[in-house]
Design a protein that fits this description.
The chain has 262 residues and is an alpha+beta fold. The protein has seven helices and twelve strands.
Length: 262
C-alpha cells in the first residue's frame, strides 16, 4: 500500500517540478544564462556589467533575451549593435571586435546610459522620444561613450575590470542542458549533482562501507519474543488487530446482559 502511494506521489510530483523548471527558464536573467566578463560601478547608481554569448550573433542573442523578458523597446535588427530598453536598465548587444563570432551583452543602468553614452550615437538605434526623455533634450549630458567594444577610444566615467571571485559566486547557478544536473559556477572538481544519476528524487548512495544499510523496526512481544525482520509473517505483525466497531448485542433470554463482540 505504501509503495503504491509513493509511486503515485512521484508520478504527480516529478512532472510538476519539471514544468516549474521549464516555466522558470522563461524568466531567466542575463546572469543566469551567460558568464560575467567585466564590471564597472560608480556612485551606486551607475553600473555596467558585461556578459559573453559565445558563438552567437547579435540578432540571435537579442531574440533569446527578448523571449525571456519582453523589452519596452527594441532597436532594429543589426549585426553590429542592438539595444533592448527596459524600465530600469538597457541591454546593449555588440559584436566582439576581437572575436566576431561572439556577442557581448552590456547591461547598463539608466543612470550609466545618461551619464556616459553619446546621444548622437544612440539616435541611430533608439526612438527620439525615448532619448529625449532620458537625456532631457541632450542638454546636460555630453557623454561620448559608444559601448564596451570601444571603451579604449570612448572612455566611460569609470574603469572596467575583471569580476572578482566573490562577484562570480554571487551569480545564480545554471543548469546543464540535457543532463538534469545543477552546476555552480566556480565549483570545479566538486560533485554538485542534485541526486544520484542526476535525479531530484534519489539521494546519492554511500558505497564507502561496501554495503547498503536498511533500517528495521524492533518490537518485543508480550511473551518475550523479538520481531526484527521486515519480512515477518502476519502473525508477527507490529500492528495489533483492531477491535470490532460494531454495536453491542443483547443476549436473548437470561438476565438482559449486554456483551461486546470480540
Amino acid at each position: 500500500m505504501r509503495q503504491a502511494l509513493y509511486k503515485a506521489i512521484k508520478l504527480i510530483l516529478v512532472p510538476a517540478l519539471l514544468l516549474l523548471a521549464l516555466s522558470g527558464c522563461n524568466t531567466q536573467s542575463v546572469g543566469e544564462t551567460y558568464p560575467l566578463e567585466s564590471v564597472i560601478s560608480k556612485d551606486g547608481s551607475q553600473t555596467s556589467r558585461v556578459y559573453r554569448a559565445e558563438n552567437k550573433t547579435v540578432p540571435e542573442v537579442a531574440k533569446e533575451l527578448s523571449a525571456q523578458r519582453e523589452p519596452d523597446e527594441i532597436s532594429k535588427e543589426d549585426e553590429k549593435h542592438m539595444f533592448l530598453v527596459y524600465s530600469d536598465e538597457w541591454y546593449h548587444l555588440q559584436q566582439d571586435e576581437a572575436k566576431p563570432s561572439d556577442t557581448l551583452i552590456e547591461v547598463d543602468s539608466k543612470e550609466f546610459v545618461r551619464q556616459n553614452y553619446n546621444p548622437s550615437f544612440l539616435e541611430g538605434y533608439i526612438l527620439a522620444s525615448i532619448l529625449s526623455d532620458l537625456f532631457d533634450g541632450h542638454k546636460s549630458y555630453p557623454g561620448t561613450y559608444r559601448g564596451y567594444t570601444t571603451k579604449e577610444v570612448y572612455k566611460p566615467s569609470g574603469t572596467y575590470r575583471t569580476p572578482t571571485a566573490e562577484e562570480i559566486k554571487k551569480a545564480p547557478p545554471i543548469t546543464t542542458q540535457g543532463t538534469g544536473s545543477i552546476i555552480k559556477r566556480g565549483a570545479k572538481g566538486k560533485d554538485t549533482t542534485v541526486g544520484s544519476e542526476g535525479s531530484i528524487t534519489k539521494k546519492p548512495v554511500d558505497t564507502s562501507s561496501g554495503s547498503s544499510k536498511k533500517g528495521k523496526i524492533t518490537r518485543t512481544s508480550s511473551k518475550g519474543s523479538s520481531i526484527s525482520d521486515s519480512s515477518s509473517s502476519k502473525k508477527s505483525s507490529i500492528f495489533s488487530t483492531p477491535r470490532s466497531k460494531s454495536p453491542p448485542r443483547t443476549k436473548v433470554g437470561g438476565y438482559g446482559r449486554i456483551t461486546k463482540r470480540r
